[in-house]
Amino acid sequence: MRMAQHRHGALARRAEAARTVGGGAGFAGDRVDPAVALAASGLCDAVVLECLAERTLVPGLRARRANAEAGADPRLRRRLTPLLGPARDSGCRVISNLGAANPAAAARAIAALARQLGLAGLRVAAVLGDDVLAHAGEIEWSEPIEGTLLGAHAYLGADALAPAVDAGAEVIVTGRTADSALFAAELVPMLDGSEDALAGALAVGHLLECGGQVSGGNFEGPDGESLSAAAFASLGYPLATARPDGSAELFLLDGAPGRLDRLTCTLQLLYEVHDPARYITPDLVVDMTGMRIEETARNRVRVSGARARGRPAMLKVSGFVERPGMIADVEIGFAGTRAEARARVAADVLRLRLADLPEEDVRIDLVGIDSIIGGARPGNAGLRECRVHVSARCPDAEAAQAVEDEVYALTLSGPAGGAGIRSERRPRLDVVDGLIDRALVGSSVVWETVR
Amino acid sequence: MRVGELAVGRSGDKGATLDLTLVARDEASYERLARAMTAETARRALDGVCPGTVTRYEVPGLLALKFVVAGALPGGVYATLHAGMHWQKAAIWALLDAEID
């Protein structure tokens, strides 16, 4: 009851001239506290938690195979325990794709958690329909599927969340959904109904979907400047107040550390969109080329000018292909005087010892020198520590063990002082894109109400 | 001059495609970058890092250039033989550290 009064009260006061959404998380493992701060601020109509990167579904699919009630984000409880109370108190909806491979089970888990938290009457909606594995044969894959197709999930749009928003869900949990759509879904009822306004809402969603990445995280200015460690440690996550025409103001909570300006916002606006004139989302193709990003105050920008370029006939699908074998990823370190020289010798030893493996299946490099983007850069000389890295695609565990053993054998039969060895084995998992006729993708909403 | 003195940048990815963005610090820097950072310049800078077909997009209104590299991440970022996960988040430094006239 209290929540309903807040929500209707807040919306009535604003006469739907604006809605405010917060970006409370940008990936499954993101910080928990920013979303709580956004919800507790009382400024947000919704806080959105984006928690499902391309591959994040895979552990969920594996878990669901073993247990039909599993498959949601295992962080659900940790993330929502501190959030649900403050969100309800301030009339702030929580929207998240942390349903991962099992949004219906996630809704049940959220209802159970809410009951423990004493949130009687809380209405939780799960949005279903992204799992299109049953239609695998009708998907146009960008490349042949070589291996076992573990799952195929279509990206749902804001339209799939609309029934849950319209019916007043206090928590909406989904599986694979376009990240921007999670935000746009909250804004749609306030928009003027034009396609350009929806394009604007999707652009706003895209700006917010990576949380702190728009407000100074993962950012270094052109003069090398970045935030202090203390600011990164308590980085403010972004909010946007959108208007009926789809324009918006992005900002940070008062006193929240961060940097939100033309540079940080433009980087995030164009992040991973490929062609900026045709950013394809399930609801609309968004043209960002005419957009404007204006700094209106410290840590506050106005964003406008998105244009709609039609509704795509096909929806994007991510397929996960499990391939036989695994990747063995092994490292050994060297320290002290001539560390780098000894590491180089060790790398050469491994090249000789692993010469039988196909060249394209092995990578040997030096961590600290050339393991990330290759090529020694000025300033790398005279390392006091240096690590040799080898990764190899291996047909089975025995072959992976043999690669690991070659690295361990360096401790007795390689350059002096090989130390700090670590190794991991990763399953071979390819992400393959596809397209599916949207007519084949139906979405539905199921409800859980806390007694 | 180093590209990183004219612009900020970020790497992203979707499937096998690497997606790089540069945003210039001002209009003069954008003009200079847009002239010098052709798709071919970017391809050369990325050649030893992750070869692929480079498509360049200009967004003059936002003082931004995008370089989309198809096939740069075969099998997606999880299939890589690089050490650990998500090496591609540093790939933008191949462009930021490129020298242009």
Low-confidence stretches of chain A: 1-14
Oligomer: heterodimer
Estimate the strand proportion of chain B.
25-35%
Whole-Å distance between the termini of chain A? 13 Å
Secondary structure: number of strands of chain B: 4
Please count the beta strands of chain A (DSSP E, at least 2 residues each): 19
Pairing-aware structural class of the strands and helices of chain B?
alpha+beta
Task: Report on the architecture of this protein.
The complex is a heterodimer of chains A (451) and B (101). Chain A is of the alpha+beta class. Chain A contains 13 helices and 19 strands. Chain A has helices spanning 2-14, 33-40, 57-66, 76-80, 84-89, 103-116, 158-166, 179-187, 195-208, 229-233, 262-269, 339-353, 397-413; strands spanning 19-25, 46-49, 93-96, 123-128, 140-141, 148-154, 171-174, 239-242, 248-251, 279-280, 285-287, 292-297, 300-304, 307-308, 314-335, 362-367, 385-394, 419-437, 444-449. In chain A, β12 (292-297) and β13 (300-304) form a beta hairpin. The radius of gyration of chain A is 24 Å and the shape is globular. Helices cover 23% and strands 30% of the residues of chain B. Chain B has three helices and four strands. Chain B has helices at 27-36, 39-46, 92-96; strands spanning 7-14, 17-24, 53-59, 64-70. Chain B has a four-stranded antiparallel sheet. The longest helix of chain B is centred in the N-terminal third of the chain and has 10 residues, at 27-36. The chains are: A alpha+beta (451), B alpha+beta (101). At the A-B interface, α11, β15, β16, β17 and β18 of A face β1, β2, β3 and β4 of B.
